[in-house]
Amino acid sequence: MSGFVEFVDAGAGVSIQDRGRTGHRDIGVPLAGAADPVLLACANALLAQAEDLAALEVVLLGPVLRAVGAPIRLALAGDIAPRLTREDGHTQPIEPWRSLTLQPGEVLAVGPCRSGIAYLALAGGVDVPVVLGSRSTYARAGLGGIDGRAPRAGDRLPCGAGQGAQRQAARPFAHATGPMRVLPGPQDAHFDDDAWRLFLHSDYRVTREADRMGLRLQGPTLTHRAGLGADIVSEAVVPGAVQVPGAGQPIVLGVDAQTIGGYTKIATVIRADLPRLAHARPGSVLRFRAVTRGEALAARRELAALLNDWMSRIGPLRATGEPEESALRTGNLISGMIDARPDADCTLPWD
Amino acid sequence: MDAPSDPYPRLHPLGDAAWIVEFGNAIDELTHARVMGLAQALADAKALGLWRDVVEWVPAYTTLTVHFGVSGLGDAAQDAADALLALARHSAPLSRPGRRWRLPMCFDAEFAPDLDELAKARDLSHEQVVALMTGTAFRVYMLGFQPGFPYMGGLPAALERPRRATPRTDVPERSVAVAGRMCAVYPWRSPGGWHLIGRTPLALFNAARSDPAWLHPGDEVHWVAIGRARFDELERAAAVGAVQRDAWLDEQGSST
Fold first, then answer.
1. CATH architecture of residue range(s) A180-297
2. What's this model's pTM, rounded to 2 decimal places?
3. Is the separation of the CB atoms in A254 and A279 below 8 Å?
């Protein structure tokens, strides 16, 4: 039989996400989905399962989870420091970037996200109803997730026991660093050279108004050209679009962004850098760099190669002194070695 | 004053995986007919197996935004740019309405907290506002802001009012609202700055259906005034799923 994950505590900023809801933007349904689909793929890869399965996204404080009914397996990707409590009350720290089996009654406190964003994958994927092609939670309209909302204490999700030995990555996945790369436009012409110079050479700090819908930034004011102004006839927007309202402080849209907007967009973050945006928190400083389409394509290739390299270094769990070690020694090692991804150099976690 | 629809559409990049095809900058039916014409041309071509890299498209007042898949293999959006522009130039405007709806709207005071103020500001009686609302063919230009939120053009100039200076923090779901020369329905409870002048008993969005939104860009909407008793009856019926969507289509207009 299959076990359950029970939420002892729901944490904060926790939601169920997969790769989001495409195909309905013409009727106003936002994409939603994992803010960092690369880390979602990492978490699922640690369970040797499809990279796009739904998982728990953790932005602030991770949940406290208990295994119910049968052993369950999950995997952890992100800058977190969970603690496992055995049935006898013994607790121990658990490193992320590995898979882990909880026996019935054992409790995992995921703890706060120390930086960025983290994902918890469940064996078999988080199984909630598919709404408009996706399990992703879009709470503002009650779509996806558990009855359209974030998890609450007492909720249970089915979870498999997994197969084979536990797996562990050789190292944490690390995104590229450096400025957020943008393609100018669509309203690049609404800004003169001075505004562009400021935009590309200034620090922009993420304010407290930062969530999955977008990040309000604070920095040098970007003035619109006289006669063109800040408002346009409303048109489609995408995650990564950098809107500049009349006050001149940019807003970078996130994965839950509305589908239509009426502000000028000076530039749009390239797809390869969208997962990095998910790691920005209030107080983070962003810089922007304009790139060409060719550079944007090269960045996608680099990201795919980075992810593929990381995945190729997933292996059996290294000795930690945990009880599972004995299972490893008794010969489950064979399933540990990996898993080249077909077309890996070109496959991005949102294709 | 509106400029005629620009015969030469332009492409603007919306990141590395989407093009905004712009047909002009006037909010009018001619420009929007060209937007919908390109949407139809893409739908037709996709049905033939063409434009495989196109994921979806989003009509707005003057633009159609075309979203492409991305991979490390190439720049699908760039590769398709010339063909997209050619299709935009040559696709015929689609001026017939997608579907024609006759939807119930109740002007009860509880649902219309801004109606009296609007009437007063425009020197109209309550009855005149109702007559203007029910005598107008509204055109759905686009959906956005919320899932299923229709931006409908055609509001008579006599009812034109800027948005509220201070948006409401809590607009009840299914409120019918006006601002500028637009009319809309809030499918979800939310903050909002438009003037609330009535409510429809029908939930115009149902995520359990594969086609969740009743209204689509290009559709035409006629409001039919109903009394409070009829509103309550329909609302109860809608809550238990006993309202058939097709019953509210105007038969002459159900061409698609």
1. Beta Barrel (2.40)
2. 0.91
3. no
